[in-house]
Amino acid sequence: MNTVIKRFEHPETGRVKFTDGVFAPRVDMCLKSTIPAAVNKAESSGRIDAFDLKNYHGLREYFYDSDTAKILEGIAYALKLYPDEKLQQTFQSWIGKIVSCQQPDGYLNSYISGAAPQDRWEKLNTLHELYCAGHLIEAAVAGKDLPGGKTLFDAVCRYADHIDSIFGLEEGKKRGWPGHEEIELALVKLYRASGNERYLKLASYFIDDRGTEPCVFPADEWNFEGMKVVRQADKPVREQDDAHGHAVRAVYLYTGMADVAAETGDVKLLEQCEKIFDNLCKKRMYITGGIGSTFYYEAFTCDYDLTNGSLMYAESCASMGLVQLASRLFDLTGKSKYLDVMETALYNGVLSGISLSGDKFFYSNYLEVDENSSFYNFGSAERQPWFSCPCCPTSFSRFLPQLGSFIYSISDDELFVNIPAANEAELLIGGQKVSLEISGGYPYDGKIIVTVKNSGRFALNLRIPSWCRSYSVRLNGEKSDSCRFDRLWEAGDKVELLLDMPVEVIRSNPKVTSNSGRIALKRGPLVYALEEIDQKYPVRELLIEEKQEFKTEKISGLPEGTLAVCGRAYHEILPSDELYFSAVPEYEETVFCAVPYALWQNRGKSSMCVWNRCK
Ligand code: FUB
Ligand code: ZN
User: Fold this and answer.
1) What is the SS3 assignment for 9?
2) CA 507 – CA 501 distance, rounded (Å)
3) 596, exposed or middle or buried, with CB in 10 Å at 0-12, 13-18, 19+?
4) CB within 8 A of 256, min separation 6: which ones?
């Protein structure tokens, strides 16, 4: 593979402020709605009082601390974007509660300490102790420099020291791996924030011991071999060639592998991660960047098994995890194919998971929904305000405020515009302050203008997405053959990028049997879907004409600037309402109108379909 490890970084949260029509309102609603609602839910459900270790009322769950930590991490990023006194108070009072439950030896988990002390480090496969620890570490690193944040940071360092004293191959320690990966990537963050190499060593241990024999998980559990696959513990990770098992756990593990490789310079580990990623995005990913084909164990299945309806999975958390992984792989390799996946997941499989109002969520992101059926995960294909396991709402709380950091990658003298959504940024490139503005209507419009607002020397790299077949670039009005500009910039310099963005008809590999005879529509990075409310006939009776000049049109009821894709279709006039019949259907010409997939079900309940029949 000949990979050379690079080390691009990202602007800190708060340095990028979106001014576009897609990300800006999503971040805004996250701060106004998603986070406040999650704070209320965490408090009213007893997640915060759980740290008192005395109010146990039988309902407390082993994953509660992870939800609290994820919301706290989101609060930290939100405070970096926009300081807010009330939120700052919540941040500090939650930290006070959390650290109050830390045990003298550093241990910190409200469920185990309050409700099941006998299980401490005994049920790694199921009780999420290391997973919760990982999220607590991520929250602490995010909030370290905020008022009161150091208290949590010191507490998680003591907790990580405690974990390090328990697990490892050294004498006096025991072998163990998390049932749900997360701590690996968190320990690398903690290493970077503290400089303590023990945390990096511990992350490497969790990665390299995973899947070796004997398995640390109990053999008396159901279907032992199957369980090992679901937990990515079927073989050592360096021998795992495909993306398998529980989808969220998988992408967290691969992110941890990439992070460890970044710090240790372990090219082989990174290459293994790239190999798994290749399998994931070429054979096991939905067109939307959704991953995990089955609700059964929330897992990947096998190559090309990508059904669209009620049996599929594609958890919101998994797509957010995929964005994180793809971003890391770009930063380490500079290969723009990773940004293509990141962009696909961001604009489609991630944003579909949250309502425009920011307070309702999909757990599973289906590609085809029958509005009258209830055979869906959690009994409904409607976005919900919360779930008994609310991992997705709490993931959005921490993910959306970080959105700005994904769109640029930076090295000492290079700046990469990963996604050209309009924004204003104050960046640090090799210690040099650079103010930048991106304007334009991306992703609906391919015209993008980057304006450098102060003088300085660095190389600006524009990305040409793989979906774009023709483009042009100009620097201060002069046509350029290159998308890389290494120069001394003057305030007011402008680079203009024009990405051609026609509607594209996408077909599936025939091995994806659910999509046979069907097409999907894409424009730029956006996948489109037909919602029944926009059609004259039921979506299942429509066939889209494949060869035509599709039109884009404004659509009411969706955010300003949203473009629908419209065109000719055929209505299938059924000769019979029997389940099976031999008579040949007739067709009448009609029209169809498709909306960006991420925006479906924001105007009420409706059936929906991404892969539509065609003629
Ligand atoms: O178990 C914690 C989270 O809940 C997982 O990441 C999700 O897939 C859901 O199972
Ligand atoms: Zn989730």
Assistant:
1) strand
2) 18
3) buried
4) 181, 182, 183, 184, 185, 188, 203, 206, 207
How far apart, in whole angstroms, are the C-alpha atoms of residue 492 and residue 494? 6
Provide the 3-class DSSP secondary structure of residue 603: coil
Can you read off the two tokens belonging to residue 375?
A: 């055979």
Report the nearest atom of ligand 1 relative to the CA of 247.
8
471, β-bridge pairs: 499
* DSSP helix/strand/coil, 406: helix
Asked whether 542 and 527 are in contact (CB, 8 A), the reply is no
- Ligand 1 neighbour 180 (Cβ under 6 A): yes
Instruction: Kindly state if the Cβ of 389 falls inside 6 Å of ligand 1.
Output: yes
> Per residue in 286-344, pLDDT tens?
999 999 999 999 999 999 999 999 999 999 999 999 999 999 999 999 999 999 999 99
Could you tell me whether strands 432-440 and 471-475 are parallel, antiparallel, or unpaired per DSSP bridges?
Answer: unpaired
Q: Show Cβ contacts of residue 27 under 8 Å, excluding neighbours closer than 6 positions.
A: 18, 81, 400, 401, 403, 404
For ligand 1, atom 2: residue with the closest CA = 391
Pairing, β 563-573 against β 586-596: antiparallel
User: Residue with the nearest Cα to atom 6 of ligand 1?
Assistant: 248
In degrees rounded to 5, what are phi and psi of residue 273?
A: -65, -40
Tell me whether strands 542-544 and 563-573 are parallel, antiparallel or unpaired.
Answer: antiparallel
Residue found by looking up tokens 């040409």 in the block: 464
- In whole angstroms, how far apart are CA 95 and each of 100, 102, 154, 156, 573? 8, 11, 11, 11, 62
- Mind giving me the DSSP string for 553-570? EE-TTS-TT-EEEEEEEE
Q: Is 520 exposed, middle or buried (0-12, 13-18, 19+ CB in 10 A)?
A: buried
Q: Residues 318, 290: contact at Cβ < 8 Å? A: yes
Best CA proximity match to 37, nearest among 358, 499, 486: 358
Q: Determine contact, residues 520/591, Cβ cutoff 8 Å.
A: no
Average the pLDDT over 3-16 and give the result: 89
Measure 485 CA to ligand 1 centroid, in angstroms: 43
CA distances from 61 to 50, 110, 128, 423, 530 (A): 10, 9, 10, 40, 39
Q: Kind of pairing, strands 478-480 and 471-475?
A: antiparallel
Q: Is the CB of 63 under 6 A from ligand 1?
A: yes
Cα–Cα distance, 325 to 273 (Å, whole number): 10
The DSSP element (H or E) to which 87 belongs, if any, is helix 85-100
Neighbours of 556 (CB within 10 A): 8
Q: Helix (H, G, I), strand (E, B), or coil: what is residue 290?
A: coil
Ligand 1: which atom is nearest the Cα of residue 318?
8
Retrieve residue 320's tokens: 């957010």
Task: Calculate how far, in angstroms, residue 125's C-alpha sits from the geometric centre of ligand 1.
Answer: 13
Averaged pLDDT, 222-227: 86
Amino acid (1-letter code) at residue 478: E
Distances in whole angstroms, Cα of residue 21 to Cα of each of 25, 368, 398, 443: 7, 26, 21, 9
Pairing relationship of beta strands 518-523 and 612-613 according to DSSP bridges: antiparallel
In whole angstroms, give the CA distance from residue 211 to residue 441: 47
Amino acid at 477: G
* Model pLDDT for residues 92-148, shown as the tens digit of each residue: 999 999 999 999 999 999 999 998 999 999 999 999 999 999 999 999 999 999 999
The DSSP 8-state label assigned to residue 423 in this structure reads E
